[in-house]
Amino acid sequence: MIRKWLLLGIIFISLEGKAQEFRLTEVIPDYTYDEVADRISCLESEVPLEFNERVLAFIDYFAIKDRAYTQDIVKKKELYFPLFSETLARYDMPDELKYLAIVESGLRPNAISRANAVGLWQFISSTGKMYGLHSNWYVDDRMDPVEATDAAARHLMDLYRMFDSWELALAAYNCGPGNVRKAIRRSGYKRNFWEIYRYLPRETRSYVPQFVAITYIFNHLEEHGFDPQPEIFYPEMDTIMISQYFHVETFCNQLGLCLDDMLLWNPQIKRGALPEGTKDFALRVPAEWKEDIVANRVHLYDTASKVGKAQLEYLARNTPGSTYGRERLYYRVRSGDVLGTIARKYGVRVSDIRKWNRLNGNLIRVGQRLSIWVLPTYNSQTKNLYTASANTPKPTATVPNSQSGKLYTVRSGDSLWSISRNNNTSIEKLKQANKLTSNTIKPGQSLVIPN
């Protein structure tokens, strides 16, 4: 048996003018494969907790290699575990499913993945909306611990009903039910996670073993040398209802509450304020403060409604990629399209289209479907108004007069030389007709072709 050590740090102390080096170490309790197997077999769990070398590798990771990460989660587990347990019990679901949030987000309600999954339970936008989690520039329900936990429980229950297996429900939560069905077919219609294991996506093959490892460790914290006592506790909470624009910091300053604490209790508030038009938003506050808040509600709310509104509204509408106050439509890329022409067509910015579609550059392909978020009044009659205001401020320009010739819209790859050649005119006549001072033209630009 090998004793494992974890190096925590090195300090230097000067003794009689001589630097002395001291290495601080923590002894990590030993454990063997058989000991862990026995402990897992004794756990009362409705979710199967199969133990093997793959699970042991994750136990080693969380108990040894990334021990600080695990201890950090232990410190804050009481922020969320009571909520998780209460919600799972309400749906008559296994309590150990609460450990899935550690695998998903490390108990960080504002976690955002590379795939743009958000919150404690890592909902992508489409799945979140299926379960009533909506988001805008100000608020994201996926970051709301209460709402997201309820949605996650319902989603997991739907997946369990689909596969009649908690292991497969967990796998489907990670990679989607379609990929699990595909793995079942490729395995010869096996219905056990470990029998379809090699047919699942790579990430999902690690997902269930991580869940088993985390479940084991959090039921045997002391055996692995972790202090099981959390360091962060929620105060007893209650809610007040908000139905107006509401600046959170101003509200906190009036009461002497810490803004960081308020946002910890309400992590779904992304910008420190609730927008105009908010209806019945349940703001969580310490229960001991509610009586004073209700007694002074009119003054507190009125003051919180007068700070930062114009600035936040401006940012909400002008931040690249913002969908605030907009409606989504889809555009199918055609031959000759570039982002600039599409942006002008819908009165948005190229940077908006990039953000909405997670594009790293300007490259698009024919047939690609792009999400375009437009203001609700956008239509064929109003699109010129959008085009005029899309990229303010703009230099003053004279609109070409089509009465002196036909209008031509510049396409990608066009030049004054190619346009003049194809229309039997000269570059100088083109420049004169369009009051151009240089040979520079851009896709989407309208030119008059002189008669």
- Rg, Cα atoms, Å: 30 Å
Strand content range: 5-15%
User: Can you tell me the CATH topology of the largest domain?
Assistant: Lysozyme
Number of strands: 10
In the sheet with the most strands, the strands line up as 1-2
Helix content: 40-55%
**Under the CATH scheme, which class of the largest domain?**
Mainly Alpha
Number of domains: 4
Biggest beta sheet attributes:
2 strands, antiparallel
| Distinct helical segment count | 21
Shape: globular
Q: Please give the oligomerization state of what you see.
A: single chain
How many angstroms separate the termini? Answer: 93 Å
Q: For the residues shown, what is the average pLDDT?
A: 85
Uncertain stretches of 5 or more adjacent residues: 1-17, 380-400
Structural class by helix and strand composition: alpha+beta
Q: How does CATH name the architecture of the largest domain?
A: Orthogonal Bundle
